[in-house]
Design brief:
binds dinuclear copper ion
Length: 158
């Protein structure tokens, strides 16, 4: 079988590119340890209300951890619990969230907090609120007829 010179060059280029990308992913995952965030923490989605820490949503001061506060959210169609929370300026906060029913989004507008909340899984993100003001939390995964009304608010106060 005769393969044209340009075909050969293109095949070599394609296969080389594939091998380079697979190596990058392999090194990133197994050598540098990069994993999708919080893919391991699970929860029974039917028992969210009685499972700690989701039995008491809201802000809690914690001691002896790398962060100062834990901010717990429970999402369900079509609201976030708590609907509003005050966070002290400069606080290092671990946001811990899950959903009781369907997939919801958890995006804090104007920050890089953007998580998907999946039934049965716990999503976590550690951040520092170093700018005072109101932050809107929106659901950015379409979850039903009330999707556009699903929001919450973080007030960062001095
Ligand atoms: Cu919840 Cu969209």
């Amino acid at each position: 079988m005769h393969i044209h010179k340009f075909e050969k060059i293109w095949l070599i280029f394609g296969i080389t590119t594939l091998l380079v990308f697979l190596s990058v992913i392999g090194v990133s995952a197994f050598y540098l340890g990069n994993q999708p965030p919080s893919c391991l923490a699970t929860i029974n989605p039917e028992k969210v209300d009685t499972t700690a820490p989701f039995d008491k949503p809201g802000l809690k001061k914690v001691e002896g951890k790398e962060w100062d506060y834990e901010l717990v959210y429970v999402a369900s169609a079509f609201s976030f619990n708590p609907a509003k929370v005050e966070v002290p300026l400069g606080a290092k906060v671990k946001v811990i969230a899950t959903t009781k029913d369907v997939i919801h989004g958890f995006e804090v507008a104007g920050t890089n907090i953007n998580m998907m909340l999946e039934p049965g899984f716990i999503s976590e993100y550690v951040t520092t609120f170093d700018k005072a003001g109101d932050y809107l939390i929106v659901c950015n995964e379409y979850c039903g007829v009330g999707h556009h009304m699903m929001s919450s608010k973080i007030e960062v106060v001095e």
